[in-house]
User: Fold these one by one.
Assistant:
Number 1:
Amino acid sequence: MPAAPKPLTARERARIEFTRDIKEAARRQLAEHGPDGLSLRGVARDIGLVSASALYRYFPGRDALLTALITDSYQSLGDAADAAAEALRDRSTAARWIGVCHAVRDWAVAHPHEYALIYGSPVPGYAAPEDTTGPGTRLPLLIGALFTEAATAGAYRPGDAPAAPEDARAALEPLLSRLPGETPADLVVAGLSAWTYLCGAVSFEVFGHRSAIVTDPRAYFDHEIRRIGTLLGIIPPPTP
């Protein structure tokens, strides 16, 4: 049996708790001022510190704190999507697609400022480091895996769509190089399109672009993702 994890020291527990307090204060700043208004000085005031100097032992600057918040948001969204897929592991790929889409929407509606941080406008002057790549690709890779599962099971039935031309395939080389060599480019395009359409639909709702024309967002979203899933081939077309 593996050895039991070593208990945390009081200092380690205090550091974890204080780091959590810093992040919570930063999220409140995001909600009130957006990412442009995030500062260590403002976070220090929020948690009752006279000076921001104590925070630099935890985050060396605003960008480091912003990276931590972005990573946490990607991980939280990824956890919600993974949990939805796992809860439906004995159901069809179509059902899992629908479940994952609703989980993404539910998370975004419940965490609009965190969603805006990862799928909204880029923060001026901030360049996300490679540390965010892994967490940031969890959702698209999960969606891609669903399309691959559907294809393996013979349940992937795309409509009459043009095959990916050579220049589009070349544009996908950074992604295709990370996948097994036998993965069809058209399947990758379908999965990438599904992620794009899903986040586009969620963004339109979270950012209020359809509030004046859609009176029941959840009902419309459910139809929308079923329609998108059918067009892209992960949901079987309706029987005539």
Note: The chain has a mean pLDDT of 90.
Number 2:
Amino acid sequence: MIRKFLIALSSLAVLALLPLSSASAQATGPDQVVYHLSDTASQALGGLRNIKNHLDTDPTAKITVVAHAQGVDFLMQDAKDRNGNPYEIAVQELVGRGVKFEVCEITLKNRGLKKEQFIAEAQFTPSGVVRLAKLQRQGYAYIRP
């Protein structure tokens, strides 16, 4: 009886450690992070600063920015922050460090925008929220600045 109890207990201990071992296996590669921007006025400047700081601390991080709704505005040609600085310069620097910037095509349709209105660094995704969900399922950490 005691022997069966000990075998069952050791089996439970092994099962309890399985999630930890798979989590640590994922943690061995570079961090994968998705930044979600839905409002340029309140998120873009701080979000770009967060991403720069993130890469300064962890240069191996794999970062994707998904923008939709009013959050796409900072990726438009000639867009400037509240200090009058073009967003494009910061975006170009981050792209040079491996960051991807993705714009929701549903937003384009709903707002009557065209791809040609965006800077060259902007990539496009059919749906921003679907892309966010897929990246999270692939193990990306979610950050909303």
Note: The domain at 30-143 is CATH 3.40.1260.10 (Hypothetical Protein Ychn; Chain: A,).
Number 3:
Amino acid sequence: MTNMTPLYGLDELAAATAGEVRGLPRTVTGVSIDTRTLAPGDAFFAITGENSDGHAYVSAALDNGAALAVVARERADGFAPDAPLLVVDDVLHALEATGRAARARSQARIAAVTGSVGKTTTKEALRLALSADGLTHASAASYNNHWGVPLSLARLPREARFGVFEIGMNHPGEITPLVQMVRPHVAIVTTVEPVHMAQFSGIEAIADAKAEIFAGLEPGGVAVLNCDNPQFGRLEAAARARGARVVTFGADASADSRLVDLCLKSDCSTLVADVLGTRVTLKVGMPGRHIVQNILAVLAAAHLLGADLALAGLALARLKPPPGRGVPVRLALPGGTATLLDESYNANPASMRAALDVLSRTPVGPRGRRIAVLGDMLELGPDGPAHHAELAAPVSEGGIDLVFCCGPLMRSLWQALPSDRRGGYAPASDTLTAILASALRPGDTLMVKGSNGSRMGPLVKALADRFRAVEEAVV
């Protein structure tokens, strides 16, 4: 988030990072680690990562209007003597210190979101709901790791009323230091599912890793937990052990934020919820029961943070899917059009089932078919082939007409499918494009989903380019 008012004074930034100012920096109005998205006035932190060294981009950042560059002490003499720099011992540590300083000065009410599935959409929904009631700052995109969280926190404006931060993990111990920077008043765990199983001994270990989010709760903080999830009891015990109040969400009759009535449509959902004793009726601008489940958590969090539930409910009608999470695209075919649901961002067993359910409710044209194009779900450990084969049940239950499978793990699903549902198989996504192109016909609706490593995103782009999408998104 970048604005034209000062985000930091130079003395403030130098004090936070224990840095030395050189040259003549300008007013800092934002924070960046990427010259491709840098805005004039940003402080550019020259992070050194696995594949690149930010110091190589300092000159470009300054040429593009950066207020200053934050650089490592051992690299500082490599720049012009008058270059506007903040010289620090370690750039990533300086970014973390800046994030902590932003949090320390803020009077905002803060929420943190984690979970195996639905983190980014839940974060975006909560941002939208809270923005109706005051200036709200939230993590950009899926900035939820060891650099994304401090970057998002460092961008927190001092005048913000609310802040929403996404926190992710793929191994134990990753969430604790991140949430201790964020120090939320409310922590949401969307769900616990078999994701990143290769790094864990079992689903209980994943629950324990997600429960690390309670380690950073402010005194009197609240854990918002999915009481419909089998790991609820484990999470509840961990939250209470940290002294947190527990607020539940779900369809269960005991839930504090409870689903009362629901109408699922192909492009949205309408629902009635009881949110800690307040009845709310609203429309959500995204389809799917899994979206509604997390909206119950959003409504609870908005209420707990002091926002107006009526305004929050109205705002959620404007919720739209982030890129790669269900964005519909029209494809121009000879004689008509087909609809592609781009779910290519990532995949695991829970999100795959949810996407198949949405596909089952999506209309098709005359003589059209519902087609699932599925790539491998990665990091599932030794049970990976079984998790893939088990998708045959939701395919059948959802009335999916054809399935195209891609990748070695998806061969297990291919073998589990009846012959009349087998559309085609390919070992890699780049070889599936031609097979799909020859199979598509007007009226079809196809959903493309897989883990990032299965490269289903490039497949979506190849189909859109080949059939020259007549509009970028269906609205």
Note: Confidence is low (pLDDT under 50) at residues 470-475.
